[in-house]
Amino acid sequence: MNGGAGTIWRWLDKAPDAVAVTGSDGQVTYRELYRRVEDLAAVLRGHGVGPEAPVGLCVERTTGMLVAMLAVWTAGGAYVPLDPAFPAERLRMMRHDAGIGLVLTQAGVDPALLEGVPTVLTLSPGGRPVNGAPRSPAQVPAMSPDVDRLAYLMFTSGSTGRPKGVAVPRRAVANLLEAFADLLPIGPEDRWLAVTTLSFDISVLELLLPLYTGGRVVIAATAEVSDGWALRERAAAEGVTIMQATPAGWRILLESGGIPATIRTRLCGGEALPRDLADALLADGAELWNVYGPTETTVWSTAGRVRPGPEAVDLGSPIGRTSVHLLNENGTPVADGEIGELHIGGAGVARGYHGLPAQTAARFLPDPYADTPGARMYATGDLARITRAGRLEYLGRADQQVKIHGFRIELGEIEAVLRAADEVKDAAVAVRDGHLVAYLVPRAQAVDWAVLRERLRASLPDYMIPVRHTTLTSLPLTPNGKLDRAALPTPSWTRPGTAAFRAPATAVESDLAEIWAGVLGATEPIGADDDFFELGGHSLAATQIIARVQARYGLEVPIITLFEHPTIAGFAARLDDMDDADLSLTDVAALRDQLDGLSAEELQGLFDDLAAGS
Ligand code: AMP
Fold it and tell me: Ligand 1: which residue has its CA nearest to atom 3?
């Protein structure tokens, strides 16, 4: 990749007028993209951005997001994603730890998130600076590409209670791009729908590989990424041929009408790929890849083409100049069939955790299998084994790191915030039925969960907030005095209790309460004023609810309606407003119930009568 942005431009001379990127703000050719990147890089250099300088990106999902990322590299710096969906306190902590003095942002981002940043440059949706007059670029020499330079700092959940920044060099990104350009059937005809937030490293592949191979990146807007119907429309309008998502992401598309048939190449990663999902993704004969890897070894470290069949999906083989070793706790390779911890070496290994030498030393170990002296391998904490058929099989984690809808979470980080509260003597967090549950041991006074949750919200992203909690007199311990997570009870489903229970009043409200309960796994009645998110709602559950509402009432309901009206009563009122037919929603639902009860002959008779009458 020649120093980060270098060979991204190998298509610039071959096809300067081909479209490189499209976004909600329009499309940009290779020639124009290059110009915008050079212009912004000059501005950044004028502001003192040079080798290794960290630059925060707190931007919207427009073509300008890609311009910003490439411009930081061209100026010699490293970008640090600052997700505008994160709380201000978390962003402040990340900026502090990364040593960020300059942030690129856009008009739609809340300026309060960037309070105290010495220099904030606002970009247009297309990536042109709209403030901060550029200093003369001519006086500041362009940076020569250097593969050893830092590409980005990617913050990930930290078990000590603070997120940690993984420092990834450009050579690791180059290894990824070269490997996937060889592996995938991808070329100038391809259009890749980019759906991942910048703060998840897999965005690097979907934003850069299309440019590296002469194709087109289609950047889905923020409003589209959790709306399967909007994504489908976008994919159809842009003729998208390739996409990468987590299992949760693919399920959202499947639940909202299916994967667009034009998407012939599908990458699934970030979490184990269950066979039922693999089968659904393979059903129309598309090409499916299971991709695996931690942020610490740069996006993906192994990839395997998934074929139809009964066996569990495996992790495939190491990509590019990457090596994988299955070792026991003494660091010795395990025999085939035995369980070991995956250790990853080679060109994808990051430098370590920024500013955290002890944590780096604990996980980035000397690599005895490497040819280069001083090389490191990363101890992933992932357990795996080689099956009799010679496949690499994923078996789960050796520690307390979990994934919820593709998001990586250290339970210890949530526990640290809970324990910091005065009224909490001790706390634990576990995953039960796919949800985070908090276990609290209160001090003298009772814990007010609503207040505590607000405190969590101030420093943790939404996906790290437990949806349920329960109070214990003490935490269960193992014989050697450690927390016995397996012995933590599974609390029965309870209403969050922030809104007083009010029974659904209309037929539509009752219908909705039943649909919500089914999707959210509620075992108690849901009240008309209960909030979808407080009940544990997330994008996939929202998709399932909307799909069921559409089927029940025959109405096209945008998913945003649920996000904007998250109570049963509020959502029901919006549905009534949307329904402009003569029949009320209740009549439509009742009619459907009656039709469902008719036999094929009775239905035919009804149609014949209707046809005769018309
Ligand atoms: P992240 O750093 O967010 O990419 O998370 C990395 C972790 O996600 C890995 O260490 C695994 O535990 C898990 N992971 C990623 N991809 C897969 C996959 N294809 N199958 C199973 N687990 C995966």
Answer: 408
Does 289 sit in the ligand 1 pocket, CB within 6 Å?
no
pLDDT per position as a tens digit, 480-526: 999 999 999 988 777 776 678 999 999 999 999 999 999 988 888 89
pLDDT the model gives residue 4: 45
Query: Is ligand 1 within 6 A of the CB of residue 511?
Result: no
CB 116 within 8 A of CB 163: no
Positions of the chain with pLDDT under 50 = 1-5, 138, 614
Q: Which residues contact 552 (CB under 8 A, 6 or more apart)?
A: 511, 515, 589, 592
The pair phi, psi for residue 501, each rounded to 5°, is -70, 125
Nearest to 505 by CA among 569, 553, 548, 576: 569
The response to whether residue 290 sits with its C-beta less than 6 Å from ligand 1 reads yes
Best mutation site among 156, 198, 382 for ligand 1, i.e. most ligand atoms within 8 A of its Cβ?
382
The pTM of the full predicted model, rounded to 2 decimals, is: 0.91
Measured by CA distance, the residue closest to atom 10 of ligand 1 is 294
Widest pairwise Cα distance in the chain: 87
Whether ligand 1 lies within 6 angstroms of the CB of 292 is answered as yes
Q: Helices (DSSP H) in 24-169: which residue ranges?
A: 30-46, 63-74, 88-98
Q: How far is the CA of 271 from the centre of ligand 1 (A)?
A: 5
Domains and CATH numbers, the chain: 6-381 (3.40.50.12780), 409-487 (3.30.300.30), 507-600 (1.10.1200.10)
- Ligand 1 within 6 A of 105 CB? no
pLDDT computed for residue 2 by the predictor:
44
- Measured CA to CA, the distance from residue 469 to residue 489 in angstroms comes to 11
Determine which residue's CA is closest to atom 12 belonging to ligand 1: 382
The DSSP string of 469-498 is EEE-SS--B-TTSSB-GGGS--PPP----S
Is the Cβ atom of 271 under 6 angstroms away from ligand 1? Answer: yes
| Nearest-atom index, ligand 1, CA of 394 | 21
Q: Buried b vs exposed e over 264-275: b needs ≥16 C-beta within 10 Å?
A: bbbbbbbbbbee
Residue nearest to atom 23 of ligand 1 (CA): 271
Minimum CA distance residue for ligand 1 atom 8: 270
Residues 395, 342 contacting (CB under 8 angstroms): no
Task: Copy the structure tokens of residue 386.
Answer: 């080689």
Between the CA of 405 and the centroid of ligand 1 the distance, in Å, is 12
How many Å apart are CA 267 and CA 167, to the nearest integer?
25
Of 373, 224, 394, the closest CA to residue 313 belongs to 394
Q: Are 155 and 342 within 8 A, CB to CB?
A: no
3-state secondary structure of 611: helix
**What are the backbone dihedrals phi and psi of residue 531, each rounded to the nearest 5 degrees, phi first?**
-95, 130
Distance separating alpha carbons of residues 535 and 545, to the nearest angstrom: 13
Contact 175 CB / ligand 1 (< 6 Å): no
295 lines ligand 1 (CB under 6 A): yes
Give the pLDDT confidence score for residue 146 in this predicted structure: 76
Is the minimum distance from the CB of 54 to ligand 1 under 6 angstroms?
A: no
CB 214 within 8 A of CB 222: no
- H or E stretch at 435: strand 435-442
**Intra-chain end-to-end CA distance of the chain, in Å:** 68
